[in-house]
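Suppose a colleague, Dr. K., hands you the sequence of a protein chain of 204 amino acids and asks what its three-dimensional shape might be. Before reaching for any lab equipment, you can write down a predicted structure in token form. Begin with the sequence itself:
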Amino acid sequence: MTYDLISGLVLFAFVSSITPGPNNIMLMASGANFGLGRTAPHMLGVSLGHAGMTLILGLGLVQLFHTLPWLRLALTAISVVYLLWLAWKVANAAPPADAPDDARPLTFLQAAGFQWVNPKAIYMSIYAQTNFAPDDGSWLGAVAVAVIFGLVNLPSVASWAWGGVQLRRWLDTPGALRAFNLTMALLLILSLYPIIATLFAPAP
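The predicted structure, expressed as tokens, is then:
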């Protein structure tokens, strides 16, 4: 990869990873509700899971989406339904003292699997592979894009979980935590707007 491609990819990976989206909103809520240590598998699942998805998309799934456009539509519809369910879970999360014994943050595998139904993550991967992978068709280019994206993504998403932990000192009452969780759930729903708008936009 050339210096221009690498620097452009790093900038895109940082901006797209640090801005609000389903992953970051859920990580902030998890940090506030469970702490940084218990949220660490969630963070690693997001970053490594997204890097893996970016690699798989770069190795051929992007072309499949072009060949079968209904596949992307179906995946997006499933994503919307799943994210709405997650928003409901976040909104109804109980304060730590009142939470049921089985209340826990997402596991590594759950967070990694979530990338495949996260519209923002999918579009980030597709854009990265189609715009920054070298044109020589080598699989090494797809690997390089995935690795660089993962290295930039991890500290970006970790900052959101850390931010949630810092908010815990102001969320020391059930009412404050409840308001925070409701706000995070609303933001999670609002993060779907660009994807839904794209789906129903008139053809050019």
